[in-house]
């Protein structure tokens, strides 16, 4: 599906993706988040347009756990995170959308400076709407591709 789904559009044409595609398997892609969740926040999403985890194929589901772990290790290393959130809302505009896990590294300094964490931190970042510096995203994506290639699955 393209046209009505930003996730599919970015898969079809990763040249429009800030920082470019980070990694891919036969069934999943790893990208940098386009939202205001900070440099180093990753997106893991199935290549196939699917709007519910319950609808993943057996092969997609078998890859999911190892990929979430690998993406979480990657995100942590990219920014020196103390914790890495894995969230999936995929309810864009109140309707089920292309599922995508948000893998957000959070540092001790970030929690100390904002005084919040967990879903409150994530919501605060969405409300502020402060997009990460494009140059920082490019740099973190370059580092992510290099780290991904060196990591065991
Ligand atoms: Zn889609």
Describe this structure in words.
This protein is α+β, with helices and mostly antiparallel strands and 153 residues long. The protein has a single domain, classed as HIT-like (HIT family, subunit A, 2-Layer Sandwich), CATH 3.30.428.10. It is 42% helix and 15% strand. The chain is built from five helices and five strands; from the N terminus they run H-E-E-E-H-E-E-H-H-H. It has a five-stranded antiparallel beta sheet with strand order 1-2-3-5-4. Strand 1 (23-24) and strand 2 (28-32) form a beta hairpin. Helix 2 (58-79) packs across helix 5 (134-150). The longest helix is centred in the middle third of the chain and has 22 residues, at 58-79. It is globular. The mean pLDDT is 95. The structure holds zinc ion (ZN). Zinc ion (ZN) binds next to helix 1.
